[in-house]
Amino acid sequence: MNIYSSKLVENAVNEFSRLPGIGKKTALRLVLHILKKDNPVAEALGNSIIKMRSEVQYCRICHTLSDSDICVICSDGKRQKSIICVVEDIRDMMAIENTGQYNGVYHVLGGIISPMEGIGPNDLNIGSLVERAKGGSITEVIMALPTTIEGDTTNFYIYKKLKELGPDITTIARGIAIGDELEYTDEVTLGRSILNRMPYEKTLTK
Amino acid sequence: MNIYSSKLVENAVNEFSRLPGIGKKTALRLVLHILKKDNPVAEALGNSIIKMRSEVQYCRICHTLSDSDICVICSDGKRQKSIICVVEDIRDMMAIENTGQYNGVYHVLGGIISPMEGIGPNDLNIGSLVERAKGGSITEVIMALPTTIEGDTTNFYIYKKLKELGPDITTIARGIAIGDELEYTDEVTLGRSILNRMPYEKTLTK
Predict the structure, then answer these.
(1) What is the CA radius of gyration of chain B?
(2) Model's pTM, two decimal places?
(3) Domains with residue ranges and CATH for chain B
(4) pLDDT tens digits, chain A, 206 residues: what are they?
(5) Residue B54 at interface with chain A, using a CB cutoff of 8 Å
(6) Nearest residue in chain A measured CA to CA from B16
(7) What one-character-per-residue DSSP string does A54-79 give?
(8) Does the CB of B30 have a partner CB in chain A at under 8 Å?
């Protein structure tokens, strides 16, 4: 039975409820909210979604989301290009940017090695990280992956790939409680953990 | 400080977080989800929002959301036009439609009388309800407003306006617990309450 008096409303509700964590009730609430607002408000939301999806790309160097071939961080003359911070995804990169403590560049892996989920090294942006390190201008690679078995595995895999290539390999300080997620850590702790990073080898001998 | 590497992503996050109950974190989660999907998925969502907002209208008769001048219920030859169910908003109408127990038509007030929120009778679609009743073809008006002081006030106000005009004025049975919201009531109880409606006067002598 169709409980909607409007197909247009029904369509919008269905589209919203495809999003994660949004059920039919929430979708309807959002739709009724939009209907109360002026036309331009709906257009701004709708167009921002369409434009973003069709125009956003991945930075050719660090693989973060970017409006152009090379992202604003990689093309920023004031950032230290010799230091690369390796993160799992764009959210972790944003969390570090938010601390204002880091002036290097990034490398977004797009995930971590997880045999359980069938994610191997070749599914991640590890090859391009090795290529960047091969250039010889990289002095330090900071590992900022989650403190989980998968994170440790990925750390170790990248460490083995990079250690012969010259750069120091460090990890952010474990001031962050084991098991906590980077993106939810408070800025002070996260900022401190960037400043207090230590050689990767040290974490192995614990 | 700008933590986004992409203006497009930032815009989309900002637009999403204007919606009620959606913060920046949730908005980013939705945006990253959309980016993982194909282009047409984003277009379907974006266009459904824009199209709905620009094309949806209020039914000239019952004031529900409609794709045309007169809604599918008011223009349905199989619905009993002599019985009108008065509801606060479109969600309550949808809840009643969902029971499959009701074959009359509706009148959406667009709110209820609430001095606290500064909503008076003239802010609601009450005048047009009186006009409908004046036509003489309406035999029954079923009040399905919330069981609150505001709902009772609105019931009584409409009762006084309509009682000289001829139609029986009934209310849905109070099988629904006082204070509970119509839209969250289970279908059986809500359906029963439509079938067991009783004369409005009876509720006054309690």
Answers:
(1) 21
(2) 0.75
(3) 7-55 (1.10.8.420), 76-204 (3.40.1360.10)
(4) 578 889 999 999 999 999 999 999 999 999 999 998 888 999 999 999 999 999 999 999 999 999 999 999 999 999 999 999 999 999 899 989 888 889 999 999 999 999 888 999 999 999 999 999 998 889 999 999 987 889 989 999 999 999 888 899 988 876 666 677 777 777 777 877 777 777 777 767 54
(5) yes
(6) A45
(7) HH-EE-TTT--EESSSS-TTTT-TTS
(8) yes
Please answer whether residues A200 and A143 qualify as being in contact, where contact means their C-beta atoms are separated by less than 8 angstroms. Answer: yes
Report how many Cβ contacts below 8 Å link chain A to chain B.
188
Which of chain A's residues have a Cβ under 8 Å away from the Cβ of B89? 32
Residue type, B75: S
Query: Could you tell me which of A26, A27, A109, A30 has the C-alpha nearest to residue B19?
Result: A30
ipTM score for this prediction: 0.78
Residue B102 burial (C-beta neighbours within 10 Å; 0-12, 13-18, 19+): buried
Give residue A87's identity as a one-letter amino acid code.
V
Element (H, E) at B162: helix B149-162
